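Researcher: Before we compare anything, I want clean individual predictions. No alignment, no superposition, just each chain on its own. First chain goes here; please echo the sequence and then give the structure tokens.
Model: Echoing the first chain and its structure:
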Amino acid sequence: MAPLKLRAIGNSVGVVLPKELLTGMNVAEGDVLYAVADRDGVRLMPSDPNFEADMAQAREIMKRRRNVLRELAK
């Protein structure tokens, strides 16, 4: 765990994430991170957990209804 110092960035406040942390998360400058509050604090995630859950459900529906989707695509 590395301490992160809050810094003024224009009229806002931000933190600088260490390179090792960014590499471990497989993200780089310009990528989007999602801040998710949980009981222990805040988690930074490279993908939206709600989107991932929705996509898992969509994949299951597409798998079950493959023939219907194939016909609709014609």
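Researcher: Okay. Second chain, same rules.
Model: Second chain and its structure:
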Amino acid sequence: MLTLVASALPVRLPQGTFASVSFAPIIAAVVLGGPVAAGVVAVLGTTEGRELRGRVPWYGTLFNHAALLISAVAAGVVFDGSISFTQSVEGTAGALLSFVGLLVAGAVYYLLSGTLAVLAISLRTGVTARTVWAKDIGAIAPNLIGLVPLGFLMAQIFTLPNGVGWWATALFVVPLFTTRLAYHRYVETRELFEQTIGALANAVDARDRYTRGHSGRVSRIAEAMSRVMKLPEPEIEIIKWAGLLHDVGKIGIRDNILLKEGPLDREERILMNQHPTIGAEIVAPARQLAAEAPLILTHHEWFNGSGYPAGVEALDIPRGARILGVADAYEAMTSARPYRKTPLSHEIAIGELRKFSGIQFDPEIVPILIGLDREILDRRPEGPDELPTMLHAGTPQEPEVAAAAAAVEPPAEEGSSPSRPLLASDDVS
């Protein structure tokens, strides 16, 4: 019964797996009845309301219960084996070894059930198993391990004489509910974090209709590059968030510079080049963004040391910043800009990346972007505008600007210079 209560309110984790606190009563069943009792409790006690309401397909229900059965029986076998091994040890040492055996059994249950759930989610969604594990199972691992001692205590309380154990075990609903609440708070906090970062990125987008969505596209390309490079999942997430926030410092750049259609003079260029520093200062007070700040600060540094703001070179530039620099340049070149209404083609942009490889860009990272699927690199159809309604209409002069932008730009005369260079070196400003 306690397992049914613990399974009643599962929490959906970011990648789609569901977590409940039924782990503790199943561990208690392992202690009390071994593999058979654990298997019965795992199959019957983990029935969820979603299944009864038909929200889970029959094959999904079958898979979920089969995975829990396998995991519970395996845990029971491991615990029984540890008991047999420690029978000759008496006293405190024997009890301690038995508890260690239960911890091992809990780890077996955790690894088996987690692996099966991750594989199912990965096959269903196309997200790599490593990503699902890191964001879902790995994130709640400390809480799951903490449920093993709770399950052991439940088993000991249940064996109290004169029927006391039956009602005393019900008191464990409180710590189980507290653990379930911790899962829920984790999901809520993560969602709030993501929404806050998205709001900051939208604040930058609100400044310039030409770069609307730029940060999201840079983040998506940089994340795809990081996965091809098989970087650790925590580092990929840092690069992803830094991609969304890499231009947040442009909030501090005046409109007459940020939106200028002609070339920037020396003083304007100096001011524009301050946006990485401003961006790093904006996120610095947020402890959760401490790892992203260095990437925001250095994403305009050049591989040969001639970038800004500090002239850092080569491998002294954080790897994430070198990835963002390539993704940022490609996305900027293939987008319209105030100084260049017509985006460069994919082929020309790739040519610029190759040309500046080893000068502006890390020569080992440029091929990673070039090898990405075009579905990742190509601009997706614009979705609903998430900016405030009052910003949708633009300024009264915007119809004239739009008309000018719609006109086909005449080719530049031979020997003349465009209002700004079309090179990667300028497009990442």
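Researcher: What stands out in the second chain?
Model: The beta strands are 11-12, 18-19. Additionally, Residues 280 and 293 are 5 Å apart (CA to CA).
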